[in-house]
Known about the structure:
Layout: H1 3-24, H2 33-51, H3 58-61, E1 65-69, E2 72-82, E3 86-87, E4 90-91, H4 102-107, E5 121-127, E6 138-147, E7 150-157, H5 164-175, E8 181-183, H6 186-200, E9 212-214, H7 216-223, H8 232-240, H9 253-263, H10 269-296, H11 302-314, H12 318-330, H13 337-350, H14 354-366, H15 370-383, H16 387-404, H17 411-431
Parallel strand pairs: 5-8, 8-9
Antiparallel strand pairs: 1-2, 2-7, 3-4, 5-6, 6-7
Helix pairs in contact: 7-11, 8-10, 11-12, 12-13, 13-14, 14-15, 15-16, 16-17
Amino acid sequence: MSTGSLHDRxxxxxxxxxxxxxILGQPSAEPSLKARLERLVEVATHRERRMAPAALALExxxxxxxxxxxxxxxxxxxxxxHLEVRHGDVPLSRFRTLDPGTVGILTAEPxxxxxxxxxxxxxxxxxxxxxxxxxxxxxxxxxxxxEGERFRVRQYFMRDYHEEPALLHALAEDLGRFRQxxxxxxxxxxxxxxxxxxxxxxxxxxxxxxxxFDLLHPARRLWRARLESCRLQALEVELLGLLxxxxxxxxxxxxxxxxxxxxxxxxxxxxxxxxxxQDIVSLAALAVLACQWVEEGRAEDPRDVYSLARVLxxxxxxxxxxxxxxxxxxxxxxxxxxxxxxxxxxxxRRTGEHAIAAALWEEAAESGELLALRELAVHHxxxxxxxxxxxxxxxxxLRWLEGAGSEVPRARRFATDFAKRRxxxxxxxxxxxxxxxxxxxxxxxxPA
Length: 448
């Protein structure tokens, strides 16, 4: 160690001792080690307080007002945008032109068959924990809704835990005028959480029984085949063309609120309000976009086209779904080619077009669909009464399994199934008789 560095360290210790003496005064006697440590901690705390910037009140950073009701007081803020303003690539004015039946197609839920997004409330919460549970509270609840020619966002905030009853009371009054609800993963998180908080306050949650459109699951059905993530902010980037700048990550939000309650410094909290506001507006824009994809067939990537076909098939719109499957095949969907052929074959079998189904299964088998070979074996054995052709399909499947090995999910189960089928078919061929006598009309076919 050099003499200069040692000298500098001694000087810093002397300055710290002088600072300690100026703050705490000279001790009357030689202090104990415990007392000495306590004095040093007090000095450090004093220096930290002196260096920390002054706290900024919430009202200085977030435009809003204190609201008082019979249950107490809370903080309320409201912003709005004109419906003609585009949020990314989506104009919110499309609320007015969407068919109310589209949400029912997206979800395949009869209860949502007449769901009007322009009359719904969009809800998102910021909470004291991301895992839920009895100890988790929603300290910020945001609502979005159409009012006239504007889309309004109203945010209810409790500045401390004792303001929760007032917040829930005002929120219930506002929610009472809506009969339809839109969330993103609200069925699993936001609604159970709010319902629990209302129960703890001995009040019934006002939206417990209304039709609820949770966009998360339709979004996954529409876009998961192409996108790595279907989180709200990932969809913003990929589908709306939006990239948030300076946004606060969701996992940091609970700690920001805890820090605010302890220190009353709203600097970081203002970013939570903006995060929540953007979540609500993006939720509305993505709901519009999802409906547009269904109504207009806007999908262009073959993976998206295939996903749209699945959504339409799930809603029993078979003619439209068949058309989208064929469009996906024309666009060369790559790994999804076999799956699209299998869906078309299943549809052909249901409508009694067995020859078409067999041709589609043959094409799917050439694309690597193992189940297509099973369907071909069943078709030749039980429909065409051709055990030789069925055995050929089974042998192709066994050779394919032998080459693929453990790469095939449930390979052992498939191998066992095909081996049993092969033994049965060989027995039929050795007996030199048709696999089954011709069935009379109305006689049920034995299971494959």
